[in-house]
Specification:
This protein has 270 residues and is mainly alpha-helical. It folds into 2 domains: 1-147 and 242-270, no CATH class; 169-233. The protein is 68% helix and 2% strand. The chain is built from 11 helices and 2 strands; from the N terminus they run H-H-H-H-H-E-E-H-H-H-H-H-H. It has a two-stranded antiparallel ribbon. The longest helix has 31 residues, at 156-186. The relative contact order is 0.16. The mean pLDDT is 79.
Amino acid sequence: MALKDITLGQYFPGHTVIHRLDPRTKLIFTVAYIVALFLARQVVSYAILLVLLGVLIAVSKVGLKSILRGMKPILIIVIITGVLNLFYTAGEGEPLVSFWVFNIYAEGIWAAIFMVLRIAMLITCTFLLTYTTSPIQLTDGLERLMNPLKAIKVPVHELSMMMSIALRFIPTLIEETDKIMSAQKARGADFDTGNLMQKAKALVPLLVPLFISAFRRADELAVAMECRCYHGGEGRTRLRQLHYVGRDYFVLVLFVVLTVLVGVLGRMGL
């Protein structure tokens, strides 16, 4: 897996309906979709959520290839989770397959399939949020949604700014890591062979310059923001104001209907 396959935090500019949605709508819809995923129980519920996700990917025009490339880094985690559910979910009656201390039941197969689907769909939905929302919009949306927390003295603007900056710098740090790895390999470093301890030791020459680069970039960003008289959220004006329009209300109604529908189907065992 190449480091360039990690696409979390990247923004793909576009003019689709999803790109033009209010960031608050997209954040609420993402949370609602995740809740619906955990309410889903059987094939019908997962099929509805999967079809909806497919429609969103098609409308956003991000491309299935980009989504699949972004899924590569978590492929091992998904496989391990599926295998654990396959072997450790007990069922009724005789096991379908039995060897050594492992028993595979029909319930275990379904649990593994649903768990893999749930993780993949959850991450894909999160990817869609970052792919179709610029860091500035994401910051404004988070800040607006967390505004009620100001009543209990929570630094809402600072929190949303930190989250969006961290997300924004993921692709930059990945690119920097790739450059450092290429430079170290050109000097004879080997990151691929050896046991676990040897691989960990080989990463030390990579981590030191990466941390130095990260601190330097953070310092440069702080100086740049200070030179522009940045002083937090109080009294700050915005070039682009957030306004709900018809499509935002439609999506909000859709997410309420979706969550209720999946919850009802889950209670019915569908």
